[in-house]
């Protein structure tokens, strides 16, 4: 047992491996989620999603129970937690990710945390490219996509050395993934689609300017969290 403990401490102290990867779990929304190096580690600021959604659902009416879609479910903990917290407000939940390794972790957490009657599934897709929304009148999308600019060198070593880069970096301005997502969403102009996105505060104006340049009409709400991050609801 001492040797095992020494081995674990070595991984943390000498290799700078995150504790969550050593223990194979992280707490989020009062639930114990399985994590490994194929997925991002859940962080407290992402729990602001719940507060924003609660306010939004209280003041908006949908024509039917909307689909909950977690796009880029490196943050599968967000989709699963929202579906459990607000189960009466959504018809089903789909977790979407381009990484099959990440989806396997998501499936482990579904099996561990979700009841059998919950309609929740995982889909391998580059955002919405392999997901059809035709059968849904209303869709609520949550997305914690990569938003770190590729040139940025201020990422903590514990993050840059261990967490998947595919889930961290997104082009020169850090917005390539969100631009792609909004481009896929606007084709469903006759549907009511809400998109809730996490990013850095200074990226808000850049993304807004980009939509105006392409004549993409959206209504913006910005909700500040902390660590210079914000949630955009469009």
Report, as a whole number of angstroms, the end-to-end distance. Answer: 52 Å
Dominant shape: globular
Could you estimate the helical fraction of the residues in percent?
A: 25-40%
Structural class: alpha/beta
What portion of residues belong to β-strands? 15-25%
Mean pLDDT: 91
Q: What kind of oligomer do you see?
A: single chain
Q: Total strand count, please?
A: 9
Low-confidence stretches: none
If you compute it from the alpha carbons, what radius of gyration comes out, rounded to the nearest whole angstrom? 18 Å
State the strand order across the main sheet.
5-4-3-6-7-9-8
Write the layout of secondary structure elements.
Blueprint: H1 2-13, H2 19-23, E1 25-28, E2 31-34, H3 48-59, E3 67-71, H4 76-85, E4 92-97, H5 100-113, E5 120-124, E6 138-143, H6 157-160, H7 176-185, E7 192-200, H8 203-213, E8 221-224, E9 229-233
Parallel strand pairs: 3-4, 3-6, 4-5, 6-7
Antiparallel strand pairs: 1-2, 7-9, 8-9
Notable traits:
234 residues; two-stranded antiparallel sheet; alpha/beta
């Amino acid at each position: 047992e001492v040797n095992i403990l020494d081995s674990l401490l070595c991984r943390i102290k000498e290799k700078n491996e995150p504790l969550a990867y050593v223990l194979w779990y992280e707490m989020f929304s009062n639930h114990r989620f399985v994590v490994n190096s194929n997925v991002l580690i859940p962080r407290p600021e992402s729990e602001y999603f719940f507060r924003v959604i609660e306010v939004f659902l209280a003041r908006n009416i949908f024509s039917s129970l909307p689909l909950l879609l977690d796009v880029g479910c490196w943050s599968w903990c967000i989709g699963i937690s929202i579906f459990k917290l607000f189960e009466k407000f959504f018809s089903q939940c789909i977790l979407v990710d381009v990484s099959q390794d990440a989806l396997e972790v998501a499936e482990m957490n579904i099996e561990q945390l979700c009841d059998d009657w919950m309609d929740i599934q995982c889909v391998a897709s580059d955002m919405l490219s392999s997901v059809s929304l035709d059968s849904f009148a209303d869709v609520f999308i949550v997305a914690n996509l990569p938003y770190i600019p590729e040139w940025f060198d201020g990422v903590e070593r514990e993050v840059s050395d261990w967490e998947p880069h595919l889930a961290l970096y997104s082009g020169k301005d850090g917005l390539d993934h969100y631009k792609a997502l909004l481009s896929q969403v606007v084709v469903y102009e006759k549907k009511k689609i809400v998109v809730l996105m996490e990013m850095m505060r200074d990226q808000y104006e850049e993304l807004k300017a980009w939509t105006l340049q392409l004549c993409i009409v959206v209504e913006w709400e910005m909700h500040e969290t902390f660590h210079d991050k914000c949630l955009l609801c469009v």
